[in-house]
Write a structure and sequence with these properties.
14 strands; single chain; six-stranded mixed β-sheet; 2 domains; Rossmann fold; Arc Repressor Mutant, subunit A; alpha/beta; 18% strand
Length: 383
């Protein structure tokens, strides 16, 4: 068992200041395990809506819940949309005798109900799989290869991990999408998801994908929306300030879990990964997710000028502009593009993240960092 200290502490703080807390994230990322560490599953205040008996009891949710005190956990909350207006009423009671922790995978219904019924009453915490600050830097290659889903990362060997991820993808397509309210063909979504893997780390081109699949561009966009809402992909938006240059205006697409990306591209082992043409894109996506999860910036973008300079990641971080460039190289050097980006965006600092172990400066504001060094620079450290 790997401690999830960041999420445990975040939950404890949120539960101390809100009547309702929603812990959301992809299936199998560890939400239920974390909740059961806070409240045992056999406790009378723990309700798992995947259990048909419990789901039946929720037919009369107000009667069931209004007499409870202390922490109440409701797992798979998106299965019972009628629950949310009841939670609003219970959250508004004097003295708040109960605090509600609801768990769920993202779905249109869960997002809509949380926004409408629980506005001003709920704090949302997004949970992902394991990250480098939890596994330790010594597990970097394993985490990159297998991804952060606990069962994939902790599998006995690479073969078991790969098989788990392939089964996860099949279940997601055949069961999860429908249960979350996305009415689309599993086969069509499977083809789209596999095709999208070729755009990992690249700009979204919906017309090109739609033409290849023989579907309408709006359909391709709806498929992308579904994968984004279920935490499978990240749509990184371009920096939008007008600086008098021809900026790239289409978003970049990243798979949020490197292990899922590798499973969809047939990468079974670390040796396969090192020989694969998507090696650089895989490293960029993995490192980008790690940095975004750890630093939690107020906003994040990429920056690109047509036929000119670009920056992989721009973070607005506690009043500072921090740029990040990902280089799969032994010893990155200062480039003209980096110097141009520094001036164009008036960056406070620029990190060049590479898979090495040594940090060194390229100029006053440009520093080459191993991935773990990006955590240390924020006042923390990966052990």
């Amino acid at each position: 068992m790997i401690p999830r200290l960041f999420y445990t502490q975040s939950l404890q703080r949120a539960l101390g200041r809100n009547p309702v807390v929603a812990l959301i994230g992809p299936r199998q990322c560890g939400k239920t395990t974390l909740a059961r560490q806070i409240l045992p599953p056999d406790h009378r205040n723990y309700f798992d809506l995947e259990d048909p008996l419990v789901a039946g009891l929720m037919e009369n949710s107000k009667t069931l819940l209004e007499g409870l005190t202390g922490l109440v956990v409701i797992d798979e909350a998106q299965r019972e949309p009628r629950l949310f207006p009841v939670l609003r009423v219970l959250a508004d009671r004097p003295q708040n005798p109960a605090t509600f922790l609801i768990l769920g995978s993202a779905s249109p219904e869960l997002s809509r109900q949380s926004a409408e019924s629980l506005a001003g009453r709920v704090e949302i915490i997004e949970m992902q799989g394991l990250n480098l600050s939890e596994t330790g830097v010594q597990a970097l290659d394993t985490l990159w290869q297998r991804g952060g889903f606990p069962r994939s990362f902790l599998a006995a060997d690479e073969g078991d991990s790969f098989d788990w991820r392939r089964n996860f993808i099949r279940t997601f397509l055949e069961r999860d999408l429908a249960s979350l309210g996305f009415g689309m063909s599993p086969a069509a979504m499977g083809r789209f998801w596999t095709m999208l893997a070729h755009y990992h780390g690249q700009n979204w081109n919906g017309n090109e994908i739609a033409s290849s699949m023989g579907i309408a561009p709006n359909t391709a966009r709806s498929y992308l929306d579904a994968l984004e809402q279920t935490f499978m992909v990240r749509r990184l938006l371009p920096w939008h300030t007008n600086i008098g240059k021809r900026l790239v205006k289409t978003p970049k697409i990243y798979f949020r879990d490197s292990g899922v990306f590798h499973a969809l591209t047939g990468i079974r082992s670390h040796i396969d990964l090192l020989m694969h043409p998507k090696l650089g894109a895989s490293w960029e996506g993995f490192a980008l997710e790690e940095i975004l999860r750890f630093h939690q910036p107020e906003e994040a973008f990429f920056y690109a000028v047509h036929s000119s300079c670009e920056l992989d990641l721009l973070m607005l971080l506690r009043g500072r502009k921090v740029g990040v460039e990902f280089k799969r190289a032994d010893a990155p050097k200062l480039t003209r593009s980096m110097q141009t980006v520094l001036a164009d965006l008036d960056l406070d600092e620029l990190w060049v993240v590479y898979p090495g172990t040594r940090s060194y400066e390229l100029s006053e504001k440009v520093t080459v960092l191993p991935l773990s060094g990006c955590f240390e620079s924020a006042g923390g450290a990966v052990v």
